[in-house]
């Protein structure tokens, strides 16, 4: 099925045929924010005279999804049932039950961790915009020996995102079906923190004393506990919340008994998990979680979530690159494929399409020093919204993507590269010199030189 294209009006991108919310300046959903392109197709800088696109390098997060596992909905239902049995529900708390039932029912249909209808729409619409921009690249006249490669993390939602993207490519350009190679999992390049050899990163995430101390201060500090008490008291009686705070209840998810609610913080984070994921499900169910968290509570919980991604997948601590170092493998593959084209090899892909997760799109944004990703902190300085621009909703919403467009001339000239982040033209790091001042086009040799020097890469 052909998915409608997005249009732009008064700076807001709207997509017909979907329920996406245009909310770029609203970061409260953090990495669960449904996708919107950040620049209209008609607004890109003109390609330098004589150049045409010859390759696309595309890395995208999976689309909007449901809950990754059967935990927050199950646990909140158990908590609600306990409160009901004790006659400890407020009038607002009573209303929560219908939302919980709807959440459970939609996951029975979709499955946990699976892409939602909205997620499929996001990738199909993205494919449509790419075809609209690059008709020459996907023309039937381009060397038929050059193929389209499709890789993913190995997780179903990443593979499903690739399927939606590729299906739309073929719907619009049927001849491409013969060029598209079977999709395969490549964790070393697009799921590197889960690939073999990632033990050092795992140890950092679980045991680094700087990270543990910072997140304990944020997640379990006085402000978070106050938010928990205020938010839960809107749903449950004060006595019930006091017993929850005292650790008098314990609930375990049926799917995994390690997922638990043991205190008010666990309950708060489970409630926020449902609040955050509901907008991803708008094309599959009518679930409004906004009555159950006040805006000021949702904003604080967004900060808590952004802090976790900042320290775990973003710039983190000054002098530390463990959160994004493993992205080297992905970029070395991208360089190798572009080099193949330079050698006039017919094995050079026409496009390389990769589908992954926030665990990758956040680190690669940091690796590339994209705007608002480069400000790390000293260990004794806490990440805060007031002092740091890192926002997952902007850097890595659902379907977040980085595209490298490779351009060449008919002559034996230097290749050019333009980079898009969430479909907006963005510069390479300041150490890289553009074709001319203010341009988004860079000589490929310069990109290879400057990124190689920044990250100590060795090329053959």
TrEMBL record:
Catalytic activity: 1D-myo-inositol hexakisphosphate + H2O = 1D-myo-inositol 1,2,4,5,6-pentakisphosphate + phosphate; 1D-myo-inositol 1,2,5,6-tetrakisphosphate + H2O = 1D-myo-inositol 1,2,6-trisphosphate + phosphate; (2R)-2,3-bisphosphoglycerate + H2O = (2R)-2-phosphoglycerate + phosphate; 1D-myo-inositol 1,2,4,5,6-pentakisphosphate + H2O = 1D-myo-inositol 1,2,5,6-tetrakisphosphate + phosphate
Keyword annotations of the record: Hydrolase, Membrane, Signal
InterPro entries: His_Pase_clade-2, His_PPase_superfam
Pfam families for the chain: His_Phos_2
Localization terms from the record: Membrane
Gene3D superfamilies reported for this sequence: Phosphoglycerate mutase-like
EC annotation from Swiss-Prot or TrEMBL: 3.1.3.62, 3.1.3.80
Superkingdom to which the source organism belongs: Bacteria
Keyword Membrane recorded: yes
Similarity section: Belongs to the histidine acid phosphatase family. MINPP1 subfamily.
PANTHER family given in the database record: MULTIPLE INOSITOL POLYPHOSPHATE PHOSPHATASE 1, MULTIPLE INOSITOL POLYPHOSPHATE PHOSPHATASE-RELATED
Identification of the protein by name: Multiple inositol polyphosphate phosphatase 1
Taxonomy of the source species: Bacteria, Pseudomonadati, Pseudomonadota, Gammaproteobacteria, Alteromonadales
